[in-house]
Every structure is written in C-alpha cells, then in structure tokens.
C-alpha cells in the first residue's frame, strides 16, 4: 500500500509539472530573445514590456512557438500594423538599435519579421544563413547597412527575402540563385551595385522580383524569361544597359514590367507589346529607338503603357485602336510623327501624353494635320 501511495503521489506531481515543462520555451531560446531585445530600443509602444516571465511562448508580443516542443518558431514585429497596441498609441512604430546575432541560436526559427521600424541600423547578421528552417526573412523599412550575406543561398527553404527600403550596399551574392524555394524577392531602394546574376533564372519559383531604386549595372539576364511563375518584375531606376530581351515577351504569367529610368538601348521587342497578359509596362526614360511595334489586338489590355522619354520614331500604330483597353498611355518626349489615330483609346487621353515629339498632329494636340 505504501508503494502504491508513493506511486500515486508521483503521478500527481508529474501531471502537475508536465504541462509547465511542455508549454514553456527552453531557457536557451528565452536568453536569445532577451539578447535580441537588449540590442533594440522601442520607446513608444512598449511591446517589449510583454517580454517578461520565464515562458517566452506565452504572451510575448510577436513571438510564437511550436506547440509540440515549445521551441520559438516565429518572431513577427511590424512597425506598421493595425494591431490594437498601435491604435492605442495613435502612431506607427519606431525602433533603434541593431539585430543581435543571438537570433542565430534560435535554430527552429521559420519566420523573422522585423519590418518598418525606420531606425534599426547595423548589418544583417551573417549567421542567419545557418538557420535551417528559415522560410521568411523580412527586414524592410529600416536603416540596415552592409551587404546581403554572401552565403544567403544556404537558406534552402527561404520563400520570402524582403530587405527593401534600407541602406544595403555591395553586389547581389552569387549564391542567391540557390534559393530554389524563393517566391518573393525585394531588394528595392537600397544602394546595391554590380550586375544581376546571369543565372537568376534558376529561381524558378519566384513570382515577384523587386530590385528597383538601386545602382545595378549590366544587362538584363535572358535567363529571367525562364521563370515561369514571375508576375511582377521591377528593375526601374537603376543603371541597367543593353537591349530588352525579346524572350521577356514570351513569359506566360508576367503582368507588370517596370524597366523605366535605366540606360536601355535598341528597339522595343514586338513580343513584349504583343503579350496579351502584360497589364503594366513602363519603359520610359531610357534610350530606346526604332518604331513602335504594330502588334496591338482586341486582346491588348494595358492599365499603364508608358514609353515616354525615349528615341522612338515613326507613326503611332493604328492597331492601338483595336485594343480592348488602355488606361494610361504616355508617348511624350520621343521623335514620333504623323497623325494621332482617332477613337478609343485616344479620345480619353490628354495632350500631355503626346507632347514634345517631332511632328505629331491631331487631337488632343492643338496641332492640325
């Protein structure tokens, strides 16, 4: 009886203690989070005031854990949010400091979002590339400097790499093409230099590639045309030169193509303007030459077609009147000549869409043919 009694008592103790053990994050994860917190200062919202107690899986703002083993899975801290803590403060977030390498010891981390805090500086810890389960890395909207880690390609499960709107410099790492699971790439509005990797087309899962507002040079890699799922490509406001690969016009899913404000030369590929899937095309502020391809059909549907500030010559194709829809079109500041076709879409466009050409005439210009 005594043995049975002791056994029952032991069961009660285990039952009482076990849930706390299972549901509480490991001390090592907690220490890593506290080191991450200590490298940052958030003066207005008080989100780190919730990071108290021994269990970082319970009510620590922005932290979530795997329910099976209580390891930290996600850190999601956004400075722009509709969360109630922002509503009460009546303001967006602001945070200074840097990203602590202590994050690298969270080896079960799948999501790291520290976005839109405006004041976080320092560099991306290189050791983040050692996190085998990381799927989302979102550091947009800070003051992070330095380079994208050279071995970023080690993150085989990464689906989102978003470091736009920072102060990142250096070249795009060659290893980036090894991110075969990558779907969303945003390196925009930084100080990135060098050329686009020639084999960027290896990122076959990618649907968005935003590399605008950098100092990227060289040509557009033809391999990009092999990214079957790519819907949004933005290379605008760089120093990209050479011609536009005709193969871009054969991409089946591409709907937005922004190549404006570069140093592109050559002619506009007929395949590009003849791609009925393209909805937004901006090729303005380059040095594109030749004639406007006469390839418009009843399947043509452009919300935006901006070809302004180039060196295009000849007449405006009359086939444009056959287009199903053209919202905004800008052909200004070229060397176009001849009469502006009548009817849709020209009847709803303003004169500014045609000004500063060599000899265009007709409505909506005041120049009579």
TrEMBL record:
GO terms for biological process: defense response; response to other organism. This is Leucine-rich repeat-containing N-terminal plant-type domain-containing protein. It holds the Pfam family LRR_8. It is found in: Membrane. Residues 1-24 form the signal peptide. Keywords: Glycoprotein, Leucine-rich repeat, Membrane, Repeat, Signal, Transmembrane, Transmembrane helix. The lineage of its organism: Eukaryota, Viridiplantae, Streptophyta, Embryophyta, Tracheophyta. Residues 27-66 form the Leucine-rich repeat-containing N-terminal plant-type domain.
């Amino acid at each position: 009886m005594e043995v049975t009694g002791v056994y029952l008592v032991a069961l009660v103790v285990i039952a009482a203690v076990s849930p706390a053990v299972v549901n509480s994050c490991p001390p090592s994860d907690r220490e890593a989070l506290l080191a991450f917190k200590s490298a940052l200062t958030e003066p207005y919202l008080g989100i780190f005031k919730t990071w108290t107690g021994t269990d970082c899986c319970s009510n620590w703002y922005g932290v979530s854990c795997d329910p099976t083993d209580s390891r930290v899975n996600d850190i999601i801290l956004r400075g722009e949010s509709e969360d109630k803590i922002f509503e009460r403060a009546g303001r967006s977030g602001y945070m200074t400091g840097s990203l602590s390498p202590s994050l690298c010891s969270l080896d079960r981390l799948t999501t790291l979002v520290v976005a839109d805090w405006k004041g976080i500086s320092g560099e991306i810890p290189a050791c983040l590339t050692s996190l085998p389960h990381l799927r989302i890395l979102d550091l947009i909207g800070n003051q992070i400097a330095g380079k994208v880690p050279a071995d970023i390609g080690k993150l085989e499960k990464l689906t989102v790499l978003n470091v736009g709107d920072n102060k990142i410099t250096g070249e795009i790492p060659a290893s980036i093409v090894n991110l075969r699971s990558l779907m969303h790439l945003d390196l925009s509005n930084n100080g990135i230099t060098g050329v686009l990797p020639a084999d960027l087309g290896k990122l076959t899962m990618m649907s968005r590639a935003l590399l605008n507002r950098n100092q990227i040079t060289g040509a557009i890699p033809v391999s990009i045309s092999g990214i079957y799922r790519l819907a949004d490509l933005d290379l605008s406001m760089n120093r990209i030169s050479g011609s536009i690969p005709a193969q871009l016009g054969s991409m089946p899913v591409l709907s937005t193509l922004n190549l404006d404000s570069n140093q592109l030369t050559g002619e506009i590929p007929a395949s590009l303007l003849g791609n009925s899937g393209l909805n937004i095309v901006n090729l303005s502020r380059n040095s594109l030459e030749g004639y406007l391809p006469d390839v418009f059909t009843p399947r043509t549907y452009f919300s935006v077609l901006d070809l302004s500030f180039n060196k295009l010559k000849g007449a405006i194709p009359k086939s444009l009147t056959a287009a199903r829809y053209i919202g905004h079109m800008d052909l200004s500041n070229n060397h176009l000549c001849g009469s502006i076709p009548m009817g849709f879409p020209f009847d709803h466009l303003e004169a500014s869409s045609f000004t500063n050409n060599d000899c265009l005439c007709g409505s909506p210009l005041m120049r009579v043919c």
